[in-house]
Specification:
- This protein is 50% helix and 11% strand.
- By secondary structure, it is an alpha+beta fold.
- It folds into 2 domains: 214 residues, no CATH class; 88 residues, no CATH class.
- The protein has a 6-stranded antiparallel β-barrel with strand order 1-2-3-4-5-6.
- It is globular, with a radius of gyration of 24 Å.
């Protein structure tokens, strides 16, 4: 049996995925290419980004991780050939300004390819999160585990753009993750005796390939927005200080804490006023509610006053089977 029979599938899947959704996302059209061709293409796109800075940091990381993944499938001789060819590419790029029409297509293809690659990494994080909930693998994916909400949001966004692509990515990522975590379970799990039997025998070197696959997924997960490993609350995007937020509590607690600030904890919710705070009884101010655990939006509401104490109303509060919740200003340091 081929040493890479199982764990060569991530890169093989990536090639197929690029081709499958290329038309939708306006990515560079690809046929099923050999790993050395894909490695060369991604290396060229990384060189374009180095020159013209067309990728965001998460996009750049997604592309670098795939370059590393394909590199493991390329012989040393082919790696040397790609490196020599890439020097020529860089020399050619040096003489072309980034606004030159000759780079318009390659720049767009680079960004579109990186978007697809981000979706693939997100699907892998999502797959690990699902398996992490099993006792067998609970101790094997700490970073992915706290990025559950971020992975969910990424997959929801892909599903809204292309439901078939989301299904394909999710199914393949699940198969990859099951194989990888099954291989690693006996050495990493807190429940080694319950590790599932491998569906196919372990190939020589496959355990190292599995560990490298998981390390790449965890590296991508680490830069995703969302919860922190230390369990501290996360500031929502666009908020610079905790004192801009109010902590959601009961009306009774808000009345008791009137005039005081409280630490905003990860287990709760925080509210950002989206206008001037109410000054009189009938005043209302729109507000956005966030989960303090990951900083993601949880709903919308309205801030009103109960005496001089700010309170929160609206559908999100009603979903908690309440009509009104109290609000207390957050301390600067959570």
């Amino acid at each position: 049996m081929n040493v890479r029979h199982h764990l060569r599938t991530p890169a093989h899947f990536a090639t197929a995925a690029f081709a499958a959704v290329g038309a939708l996302l306006a990515a560079v059209p690809l046929s099923a290419q050999a790993p050395n061709q894909m490695y060369a293409q991604i290396s060229e796109q990384l060189a374009i980004d180095t020159k013209c800075q067309v990728l965001s940091p998460p996009q750049r990381l997604a592309m670098e991780l795939f370059a590393d993944e394909f590199r493991t499938q390329v012989t040393p001789a082919d790696q040397s050939a790609v490196a020599t060819w890439l020097e020529g590419v860089k020399t050619s790029l040096a003489g072309v300004p980034c606004n030159d029409p000759r780079l318009t297509g390659p720049i767009k293809a680079t960004g579109d390819a990186a978007t697809i690659q981000q979706d693939i990494w997100a699907s892998r994080v999502h797959a690990i999160v699902g398996l992490r909930n099993s006792t067998n693998w609970a101790s094997m994916s700490e970073i992915s585990g706290v990025k559950n909400t971020a992975a969910d949001r990424a997959m929801d966004a892909l599903r809204n753009r292309n439901r078939d692509a989301a299904r394909q990515f999710s199914e393949q990522a699940r198969r990859e993750a099951e194989r990888v975590l099954s291989i690693l379970c006996p050495t990493k799990s807190i429940a080694r005796a319950n590790c599932p039997a491998l569906a196919a025998p372990l190939n020589p070197g496959e355990d190292q390939l599995a560990a490298a696959w998981l390390a790449r997924v965890e590296k991508y997960a680490a830069q995703m927005p969302g919860a922190r490993l230390d369990g501290k609350p996360v500031l929502p995007a666009g908020v610079t200080d905790w004192t801009e937020l109010l902590s959601v509590t009961s009306v009774e607690m808000a009345l008791a804490a009137s005039g005081f600030e409280v630490p905003c904890e990860a287990k709760g919710y925080v509210v950002r006023p989206d206008g001037p705070m109410p000054k009189e009884y009938l005043d209302t101010t729109p507000a956005t509610i966030f989960s303090a655990r990951d900083g993601f939006e949880a709903g919308r509401g309205e801030i009103t006053l109960f005496g001089t104490t700010p309170t929160l109303q609206g559908p999100w509060v009603e979903s908690l089977r309440s009509q009104t919740m109290g609000l207390v200003r957050c301390q600067s340091a959570p």
